[in-house]
């Protein structure tokens, strides 16, 4: 007997038929004698619809967000998961399984106060564990918890993955299965590159980079939690026949295991390619080249919660003026421009230039630590396709390259093939 947390994403619960199919996956594990907790997302498209409704409301001045009260945003967007949790509990009951739905606050999953992007602080899992011990299946609404203000707080887009891993850690589950619309983690988004290969295993560090650099298959925070709490996490498909051979394999279920790098026998130099759309680049021209300038630029941006990414500073020609270029998510660009205009006097720049519609393509692999020349082959391959590079950043296990959005797919496919990742 094992304890298993099963998470089903939006496309897996998109309609009643799929919810019944999900129930069959759950039944398989229950029939095998395991203790099961399930985490569900909202039906696919539902959260987007709820977000759009909030954005369609009049802007509220004086609220704790520039456009609307973030606590009410959370009250609204958390509702999609409540529906699927209830529906799945009913579907399970109709199969003779003792199941009960749980909203985030009922457990409770306690979070911090950052409405819209809250972090889980603690999960009081004892009642859930007790009931699981009695054979009851807990169906938990993902994406949400209870803030210190006693109000619903959501965990950021894609947050149900994090709910699942956090619950798995809290109930000391033997395994956390993230069921989605692909049958594992691939060398790149299989929707962009059909030659992408499914990975049998991927190291936590690599998955962390893949997720933060745009591969939306897992929310970044869920990977961090899995790494810290050593949760055995698999990414697998909900679309396969729930009763196909091997689906109930306890130790080696089909899919991709996220694990310690020591567990990976054949380590390639490059493991995967990720991309993030909707990047914007901002350049401050002729900035005074003196101590304190970076702080004067990036301090106010940070205070406004704008996530600055790639930063490039030129050498100044005459030792007095330089150019500072950096990227922000496109959605934050207008706000960033306003903040920078407000700080113009302290920073002392001539003009601001900006460009949207850029894409960051990243090459990831822990094998890069011990291999030279990985970056050079990326630059050569992109040059051969006539793709201009606007900015580069590197770390021990990744290279990120900023390019024009029009070349995103070409760049992903080019890099995928250069590093020998294409399906044979
Ligand atoms: P869910 O609704 O189940 O949470 P998501 O849409 O959040 O599913 O994540 C699954 C999607 O992630 C896939 O449909 C796929 O297009 C995308 N994806 C991006 N990069 C990868 C990758 N490297 N491997 C697998 N899927 C990826
Ligand atoms: N429903 C939420 C979203 O679409 C959370 C999730 O699916 O993980 O972002
Ligand atoms: Mg997701």
Automatic annotation (TrEMBL):
Residues 282-366 form the ACT domain. GO terms for molecular function: aspartate kinase activity. Keywords: Amino-acid biosynthesis, ATP-binding, Kinase, Lysine biosynthesis, Nucleotide-binding, Transferase. It catalyses: L-aspartate + ATP = 4-phospho-L-aspartate + ADP. It is an enzyme of class 2 (transferase). Pathway: Amino-acid biosynthesis; L-methionine biosynthesis via de novo pathway; L-homoserine from L-aspartate: step 1/3; Amino-acid biosynthesis; L-threonine biosynthesis; L-threonine from L-aspartate: step 1/5; Amino-acid biosynthesis; L-lysine biosynthesis via DAP pathway; (S)-tetrahydrodipicolinate from L-aspartate: step 1/4. CDD domains: AAK_AKii-LysC-BS (cd04261), ACT_AK-LysC-DapG-like_2 (cd04923), ACT_AKii-LysC-BS-like_1 (cd04913). Its EC number is 2.7.2.4. It comes from the Bacteria. Belongs to the aspartokinase family. This is Aspartokinase. The lineage of its organism: Bacteria, Pseudomonadati, Pseudomonadota, Alphaproteobacteria, Hyphomicrobiales.
